[in-house]
Design a protein that fits this description.
NODB_dom, 2 domains, Polysacch_Deacetylase, globular, 8 helices, about 25% strand, alpha/beta, hydrolase activity, acting on carbon-nitrogen (but not peptide) bonds, Polysaccharide deacetylase family protein, TIM Barrel, 5-stranded mixed beta sheet
């Protein structure tokens, strides 16, 4: 595949007043699916008709569907991606991916990645993929990656479990799948999707030490500046399956941030806040909007020309809560996009301490 580089505003010598612009892309939106079925839970599903609509839109609109791991390697190395590059991913090894999703992908020659939890695969559950099906899909653009063995809440300890035993159990969840991928499919792409999107500093450090790229469930666009142990993806199922809103996400850019301060992975009984510091540039700061899940718009306090603090009005309830921020670019045709997730735990859930 040929890729080109953008040299925006490059002037060669003093005699040339024109600029040379060659299209390329230094960021990647990634779509996240689960079921492709009309009979599975609506919150994590697209119907086959919806999935075909999404894929047809990608093809007709000139999107270049790329292999996820290869594209991430290029971004990390500051190599350009094709213009309108996008990647497709699925979480969980559901049989509907093979039955309804794979034929659509194969017909369009679209590469895709499936993050598999191997326990139901190994016990031959009729609702999950078989290794033979995965081999067939692998021969037609499919890549299979790590979603742990048992799909646990990775930050929850079992009753009576020490912090050390918990971390060892999580390492086994990861290593077992890596070994099974190599055994049955010949290799591992060294990528993992956190079950429920949950991770903390210890888990992300484990991923970094194992040289595994990992994904959360916050929305956003990947760039070379992203945290490659906690990458964003755009959910494209359930309430997010509407094509008109999906178009906006496919055209999104990464928020041009120099730094962020989130206060950690866990929310408390106080409203969360996040401080964002922007890179130098010409941005439409007056149009920046941050939304708190279940609460509406966050309060924005600008502490300098390039620093803003977004604060929720109320504490989160138990579970996961988000702040999503968007801002139109200068052209008004794209949105910069950023999201952060916090966990509000309760004592009976057994979450590992943030300080441990």
């Amino acid at each position: 595949m040929l890729s080109t580089v953008r040299f925006s505003g490059l002037v060669l010598g003093t005699a040339l007043s024109a600029s040379i612009t060659v299209q390329a892309q230094d960021y990647l939106p990634i779509l996240q699916y689960h079921h492709v079925s009309a009979s599975s839970p609506a919150s994590t599903s697209v119907t086959p008709e919806q999935f075909m609509e999404h894929m047809d839109y990608l093809k007709s609109s000139g999107f270049q569907v790329v292999d996820l791991r290869s594209a991430l390697d290029d971004l990390k190395a500051n190599k350009p991606l094709p213009d309108k590059a996008v990647a497709i991913s699925f979480d969980d090894a559901y049989q509907s991916i093979y039955q309804a999703g794979f034929p659509i992908l194969k017909e369009r020659n679209f590469p895709f990645t499936v993050f598999i939890n191997t326990e139901p695969v190994e016990r031959n559950s009729s609702s999950f993929l078989t290794w033979a099906q995965m081999k067939e899909m692998q021969a037609n653009g499919g890549v299979f990656a790590n979603h742990t063995v048992n799909h646990p809440y990775m930050l929850r300890k079992e009753s009576g479990e020490s912090d050390g035993d918990w971390l060892a159990r999580m390492e086994k969840e990861v290593d077992t799948v890596e070994a099974l991928l190599v055994k049955h499919l010949g290799h591992s792409p060294k990528m993992l999707a956190y079950p429920y999107g949950e991770s903390d500093r210890q888990i992300r450090t484990m991923m970094k030490e194992k040289d595994i790229i990992a994904f959360g469930q916050q929305s956003g666009v990947v760039s070379a500046d992203s945290d490659f142990e906690n990458l964003p993806r755009f959910p494209a199922a359930g309430s997010y399956a509407n094509l008109s809103t999906l178009k906006t996400k496919l055209d999104a850019k990464p928020m041009p941030l120099l730094s962020e301060k989130t206060g950690g992975d866990y929310a408390t009984d106080q409203p969360v806040s996040i401080q964002l510091t922007f890179k130098e540039g010409k941005y439409r700061f007056k149009d920046l909007t941050c939304y708190v899940s279940g609460q509406g718009k966050a309060t924005l306090d600008w502490v300098s020309d390039v620093e803003v603090v977004a604060t929720a009005d109320k504490p989160f309830g138990v579970g996961r809560g988000r702040i999503n921020c968007t801002m139109p670019d200068e052209s008004g045709q794209h949105y910069y996009w950023y999201s952060n997730v916090w966990i509000r735990s309760s004592p009976e859930q057994g979450y590992v301490s943030e300080k441990s």
